């Protein structure tokens, strides 16, 4: 008896060791439970075992994992009320059956597959309890022999049930987290779909209305789209609008800036690569086309792609197939392709810098996005929209005068909507709370940095040839044309009225002549105090050094 006891203890320890190894092998409860039952069978001679868990309605117990059962037995359901196993689930108390003769016919019928012919077996059922609630039933049976120790077997089953309860807890947490993420994803999809509705875009001009009409029409199809227009006109916004108004809106929208990718890595980024495909390829990488499966991919600045990559993109357009770098396996992609460019595609084709066959493939549905100077009626609504957003972002409240609105409406905005947006954020950041902005308070870049010649020739209004010149600058109330500024401390050199060139030398001269008085220096230079302070901060000048 002593030898049998120690042998049983040794086998029990081996079983528990095997179970402890498999508990962390997977996050799938069914897989973990099946491996645990197999470990019990191998070490404790269990014939059959199963883990039962309640169905969604909690009226029956279904097999979650088993060992030694047929496919038909896998499908069996056990009643929660009125059955032997249901009693274990509802009471939370373990039960052991050594003689089926003591059970009624219904219970014997319920457990008929645990007995073979006339040979009786020992049946052990223990509850799987989590936070004082029963979440399942663990059942096993074995043939009686001289080494059978029911009490020891029951202890082992309780330990296994306790360990499985922790796996059930982790599974429930994962399921809740997945459900939460799926709910957040659905809500985000709804928000994005609402945000990128064409009617929510700030559009008043006839030119942009025509563009939006084409966007609405093409969004419902799977046709390839090429958005053409200057930088900053909103091509990315329109690409998102097309995607979120299409049947693919629940799929991914993957953006790729072709101009920002190094030539040596473009193909790896677009198509992915296998481990070891090249030096530094330490693991398998999924490409952007695979990421966009079932959704859309947006190839911005597609005119910057090298010729060898253009050939592979053409194949994706025509056949929907590609290979990862370092692989001979052909992959298929179900992805809508939306492209954008600000290049002269026709000129590039003539100069053999862009493939002609790809050009014709891209031009299935070309959509022209007009520059901001061609839709001036959109400027004021955009200004008001951006100001509201930036006042909320930076916690300031500013007003804008009519002359400031007229100035912005007449300005040519070479950077288009992007430049307008950044200029207005700069304006709000530099403004004081409660300010009313005048035309001189709008810090456009060619005022701040005229020497950089951002818009072209300054003598022709600061814009490239062919663009309409901007309206003349608003008169400065503090400095009349061809007049200087006199103080009791000396006289600043006379300078004709023009856009102020705030160089370091002119700032130092003005501060020195005004005894470091910033307001007087700003008036002398023909700029606002805010613009003066901005340049002083940029040039790291200390006005106090000029006080005498």
Form type: elongated
Report the average pLDDT across residues: 80
Number of strands: 19
Structural class, by secondary structure, is alpha/beta
Q: Percentage of helical residues?
A: 40-55%
Radius of gyration, in angstroms, nearest whole number: 38 Å
Low-confidence stretches: 455-500
How would you sum up the major sheet?
Answer: 6 strands, antiparallel
Share in β-strands = 5-15%
Tell me the distance between the termini. Answer: 108 Å
CATH class of the largest domain: Alpha Beta
The CATH superfamily name of the largest domain is P-loop containing nucleotide triphosphate hydrolases
Number of helices: 20
Question: Can you tell me about this structure?
Answer:
- Helix content is 43%, strand content 15%.
- It has helices spanning 2-23, 29-44, 71-74, 84-91, 105-110, 150-195, 206-219, 235-244, 266-271, 288-291, 307-319, 345-350, 356-362, 379-394, 402-410, 416-430, 445-448, 504-513, 518-525, 529-539, and strands spanning 48-54, 60-67, 77-79, 95-97, 122-130, 133-142, 225-228, 253-257, 272-273, 285-286, 296-300, 321-323, 330-332, 336-341, 365-368, 399-400, 436-437, 486-487, 490-491.
- The strands form six sheets. The protein has a six-stranded antiparallel beta sheet with strand order 3-2-1-6-5-4, sandwiched between helices.
- A hairpin with a 2-residue loop joins strand 18 and strand 19 (490-491).
- The radius of gyration is 38 Å and the shape is elongated.
- The model is unreliable at 455-500 (pLDDT under 50).
């Amino acid at each position: 008896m002593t030898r049998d006891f120690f042998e049983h203890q040794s086998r029990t320890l081996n079983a528990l060791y095997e179970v402890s190894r498999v508990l962390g092998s997977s996050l799938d409860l069914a897989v973990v439970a099946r491996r645990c039952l197999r470990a019990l069978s191998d070490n404790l001679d269990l014939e059959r075992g199963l883990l039962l868990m309640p169905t969604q309605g909690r009226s029956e117990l279904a097999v979650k994992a088993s060992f030694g059962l047929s496919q038909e037995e896998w499908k069996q359901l056990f009643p929660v009320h009125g059955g032997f196993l249901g009693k274990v689930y509802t009471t939370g108390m373990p039960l052991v059956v050594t003689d089926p003769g003591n059970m009624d016919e219904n219970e014997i019928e319920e457990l008929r597959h645990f007995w073979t012919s006339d040979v009786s077996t020992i049946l052990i059922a223990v509850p799987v309890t989590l936070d004082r609630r029963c979440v399942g039933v663990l059942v096993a049976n074995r043939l009686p022999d001289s080494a059978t120790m029911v009490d020891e077997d029951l202890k082992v089953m309780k330990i296994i049930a306790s360990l499985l309860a922790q796996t059930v807890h982790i599974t429930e947490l994962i399921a809740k987290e997945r459900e939460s993420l799926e709910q957040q994803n659905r809500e985000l999809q709804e928000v994005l779909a609402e945000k990128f509705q064409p009617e929510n875009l700030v559009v008043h001009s006839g030119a942009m209305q025509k563009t939006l009409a084409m966007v609405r029409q093409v969004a419902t199809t799977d046709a390839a789209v090429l958005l053409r227009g200057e930088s900053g006109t909103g091509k990315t916004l329109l690409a998102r609008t097309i995607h979120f108004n299409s049947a693919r809106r629940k799929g991914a929208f993957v953006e790729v800036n072709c101009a920002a990718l190094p030539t040596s890595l473009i193909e790896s980024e677009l198509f992915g690569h296998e481990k070891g495909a090249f030096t530094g390829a330490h693991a398998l990488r999924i490409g952007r086309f695979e990421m966009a499966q079932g959704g859309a991919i947006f190839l911005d600045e597609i005119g910057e792609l090298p010729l060898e990559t253009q050939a592979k993109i053409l194949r994706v357009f025509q056949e929907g197939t590609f290979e990862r770098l370092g692989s001979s396996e052909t992959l298929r992609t179900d992805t809508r392709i939306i492209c954008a460019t600000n290049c002269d595609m026709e000129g590039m084709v003539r100069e053999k810098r862009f493939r002609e066959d790809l050009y014709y493939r891209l031009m299935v549905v070309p959509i022209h996005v007009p520059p901001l100077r061609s839709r001036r009626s959109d400027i004021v609504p955009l200004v008001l929209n951006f100001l509201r957003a930036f006042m909320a972002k930076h916690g300031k409240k500013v007003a804008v005068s009519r002359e400031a609105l007229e100035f912005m409406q007449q300005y040519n905005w070479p950077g288009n909507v992007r430049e307008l947006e950044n200029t207005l954020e700069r304006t709000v950041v530099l403004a004081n709370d409660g300010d009313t902005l005048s035309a001189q308070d709008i810090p456009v870049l060619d005022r701040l940095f005229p020497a950089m010649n951002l818009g072209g020739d300054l003598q022709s209004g600061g814009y490239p040839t062919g663009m309409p010149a901007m309206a003349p600058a608003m008169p400065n109330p503090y400095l009349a044309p061809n007049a200087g500024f006199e103080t009791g401390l000396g006289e600043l050199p006379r300078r004709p009225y023009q856009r102020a060139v705030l160089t370091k030398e002119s700032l130092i001269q003005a501060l020195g002549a005004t005894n470091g008085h910033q307001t007087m220096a700003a008036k002398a230079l023909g700029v606002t105090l805010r613009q003066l302070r901005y340049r002083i901060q940029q040039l790291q000048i200390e006005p106090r050094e000029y006080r005498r």
